[in-house]
Write a structure and sequence with these properties.
Helix content is 25%, strand content 33%. It comes from Esox lucius (Northern pike).
Length: 1295
Amino acid sequence: IRVGAGSSVADGALRRRVVGGKEARKRERERVWQLEELSDNTAPSAGRSLDVFRGRESLLGKICLALWENTNACHSPLVVLGPPGMGKTALLIKLAQEMRGLLNPRGMVVLRLLGTSTESSDVDHVLRSICLQICAAFHLPPPTPLTAHTHQDLVRFFHGLLAKVSDSGDTLLIILDALDQLSSATHRQEIHWLPKDIPPNVNLVVSTRDTGSPVLANLQRTVELPGNFFEVEPLSCDQGQEIMDAYMKAVQRSLTPEQTEAVLRSFQLSGNPLHLKLMLDMARRWTSYTPVTDLALSSNAQEVLSQLLQVLEERHGKQLVGAALGYIVSARGSLSEAELCDVLSLDDNVLSEVYQYSPPLNLSLVRLPPLLWARLRHDFGELLIEGQANGIRVLLTETVRERYLRSEQWAERHRVLAEYYLGSWSQGRFKPLLLPKLMTPLDADRKVPPQPLWFTKGVANLKKLQELPYHLLHAGLWEELCQEVIGSTDWLYCKILNCGVASVIEDLTLCTGLKDCPETQLIRDTFVLLKPTLDFLDGQMDPSLFYTEVLARLHSFAQMYPSLIGRLCSQCHNWLSGCPDPVLVPMCTFLPSPGGAQKTTLAGFQKGVTALDVCPERRILIAGSEDGKVIAWDLNDLEVIQTLVGHTGVLSVKVTDSGTHCLSLAADGTLRRWSLLSGRQLYCRQEVVPVNPPPSTAHMHVSEGTALVYTHSGGQVKVWHLNIAELLFQVEDVNVSVVLGVLNGMIISLSDGGLVTFSHASSEAETMQTRLENWSCSLTHTATLLLQKHGQLLIASSGGFLYQSHQTLQHSTTELPVCATFLSASDDERIFLAGGGRLLLLFHTEMNSVQSFLDLHHDDTVLCACVSRDSRVVVSGTEHHTIRVWSITTGNLLDTFLGMGAPVTTLALCEGTVISASSSAYYLKLWKLPSPNDPQRSPGGCIPTGYSQVALTKDGDMVYFVRNGGRKEVIAWNCSSTDTMAVSAEVCCLELAQHKRLLFCGLKTGTVLIYPLAFPQETLCIPPPETLPMVRCVAIGCQERRLAVAYEDSVCLFEVTTRDSFPSVEGPFKRFPLSLLHSPVSSMAVLPDYRVLYGTNCGEVMLYDFKASSSASLEGHHSRITCVTLSNWATHALVGSEDAVQRLWGLNPLVLDHTMEYKGFFEGVLCAAFSESDRYVFTGSQDRTVKVWDVASGSLLFVQYVYSPVTKMLSHRNGFVAISQQGHIIKEAFRSPVQVSPEYNPLRNVKGQYRVTSREKSVNSAHAAITEIPEYNPTQFNFMALMLKTKPSHTCQLL
């Protein structure tokens, strides 16, 4: 409620009409919802209850005084608590009325009565409506659509909005009644979203019941001041007398002294205002001669309600009263009166009771007479509460549920509601009915409205989307639930589009909780994996994206689970096949699928994650980022607890005080302490570490036992008091090379020559020194580990030595097989890890020595590792995005996690969950930790990541690759087996002749090995030239007759033939040298007429004719050429590079047909493939997308995000087969209509821009083509480029 001109804003919004289009309809619907909330949450909506507001004046005054005292300082929310029916809602409504009169003209009161409708039970909807109301009132920019529909971003926006209002000097009061009525399905009752540190000029008042809800316990834990809690206590007898007098005066009735005494005597037993209200509703119908002995007043509200219901049953019938209240209580949200009448008309028991004495006049149409409902509604009075969207609720639902919803009635109520929302008896379908006066069943039309999924285009049946799954499940109609909801893509897409993916996950979670069904669990997990993507799209999801994502994740489960998942996949395939726009149809599973190791992705940063810590006791995860943000998550429900801002570049974070506080150290030199309960910054100390220049590394050690914080960077150490951040002392020694850390209060430093110094910061007399053996001036320390429990120090040097030193100055030296770059230990410090290169070493810690007991070999560089708390499992992260889980007892590899998408620089474990982070990625990923007894699990259709070269067959059944860590072997992989082919030197390139089945391996020594796949025991060899140059690139002609090999100094052409049915390679019969200044060849294609088109590392593009011994320079690129792909009929070639430019060349004659340039999201091309008809060209890019282009027009037809860069592509039937950097095999078919709609936008699911520049295809143009290479003139070509026609750019801001 805005004091002042707020209503005109609302009226103006209400008068706006839908202009058309899905987005306009959605905005209009949200405006209507907001206006309904504004009207339903105003103070006059409380009705008569405020006219007799008595007995709470003192409590109201205390709350107003607390609001006034909090005006000029930061404070916590005020909490009103009490039992149900004690008057909390009336008190808050009165508070809103009073504050409107007290606030200045620029003040605003926002009131929300939670739980009065489905929308008001959803915290995201409530926050969104509050933000929009505040922004409209104070003329602030509203949240973007993406922010408004992403929970974490919306919470941050809400908190920031309060700060903006405070800074502007405006006054704001937010009142949230009944926090315990928020939906518990999404764990919002944990109240992480509620601001705990309220800025000046802003006040927040909330209410909750005092028992039976976790909300109060969470509030008591986060709101630290007892004075912020206001308990609504029972009323006294005098207050009850005052309320009774005012009530009776308002209804113009009076009671006899005996009746008054009886009411007060009963009220005195509870002191509950609701109890008194129900008794007064009964008393207003008494006559003056009604004897007191007949009153039988009860001692609490529940018993009085039962008496009222008994009276209503006698007057209107038990079936009618019970069914009306039972259906209202059974609804997931709320029922309107029209809906309730329709549902009652479908209840055979109700109609049998209504027509027990006489049949209906029209036997073909049977409904509940409207007059009966009107009489019953009148007698219900204020037992029914009008909610939002014309919905009605019941007072004291528990009492109604106990009386009218026993086990058999519960299922029957849900069955009738399910039939209503299914539309089973609508549109003239007759429902049989047996009436008492008729001997035979009566087939009659109940005249209930149909319940389609879409009322009209863009207008969904939201009530059906909300109610139907709930009632089908509780009615036990599992087959109907699977058919109409879980196994229907139409339903799932409609609900995601209109209600959000979280609502679908909530429905599926409800299903899995009540019925054990692995298919439902897999479908639910699919949408959990999809949620970050769909949230990012903010409801603007294109249907092709939905069907593609679902099919690409569930395809592999279709045969295993045909009833549900198979049906979903079939529906997705049918929709995509009939799509009116261009689309790629997945033919296999290639996106992260459910049932795997990945649990979820945590996002919220803009830059890489640089610090991580976990509190196992409270299962709290805290992470800091290079963007300066610190985020804390609750690992139980994966909700954001706090988002802490203020830093620039977080270096270290630490959880303290059993998860109630945390410390953060940043590159801006500040040390901050935060309360994780309230989100309040407790202190901020400047210049804790040097800032000029900013430190590359800085460390923080916390000793909670002594309440000290040690910070050190370079040779400087500072010691602070943990609670007040007072600088106790600091140490800075110019002779110290580096401070290694703090060991049990002793500062340990390392000087030149390997001198280790143990010193106590407060006393120089206690300094002890020891010199490390075999330490020279050229050595540097590479890693340090402090074992606090053992009082030991471990130092790894660049010379490959591990030094163990004790506080007693005893030390030992161990030579390592690698130079250790990191050290870490288990929680009990009995095991420690040393990692370097491709090796992870495990040691047992002893008093004076360390004992190595396990070596774990990796395929690439190990960057981090950690040990489980039970010391049974070790987890390692590598440079090539891979996480491996090992058994410590056996050394076996238990699992491999693929899909991190960045080098794994930080790992943590928390009770069966692996947390991975990267300084190059803005997200964290959570994985399921396998049991040490489980066998190794390998994802189907996926090869190990971290390969340097790869080749695959056209059907994608066989993949040949070279690992980054083992380039001297070629691995042949398929879903059932893996073979290894050893080679004599490092492999530089791989190429596969598909029809002749020859695998070519170019080696660093200049040799080309040829493996005839039809003869596994045989190997052919092309010997290197005399100079032994490295093989840079190998290319095979489109008919596989010729082979081109690019060395460092030349390019040679060979013939691929057959002798006695055995493959043979002859030559080289053609060769042309490369100059010393020539950049190395990076990609190449062989044309049929003895020409070679190649690109270099410097972006040059050349065409060489072996017959004419001449070359031509084509328009080059500004970066390395990554892709030169020839069309199947050798009419075109696509040249792509690391920059955002690709060019499509016509080869006969040689012309530049199209230049495609990218901006924004798009990045360079990695690979390409032409369709079998050469009509389309598919490209895989570094931006993790697959794009489809029209060869003739150069138009972009489709863009698909595949979550990983695609590195190799081949044409396959009417689509392509490819492999991603994460090792997933991708098979897709392309469907495109003959004529693409002019309104079609290929960038509707991505955020980026592209421009296509095409030549004028005019036969009369003198420069339309270059026909002869010898006469090729670069000047002429540049002149031709001036005549190119530019097509319009396409821009989309959806993703």
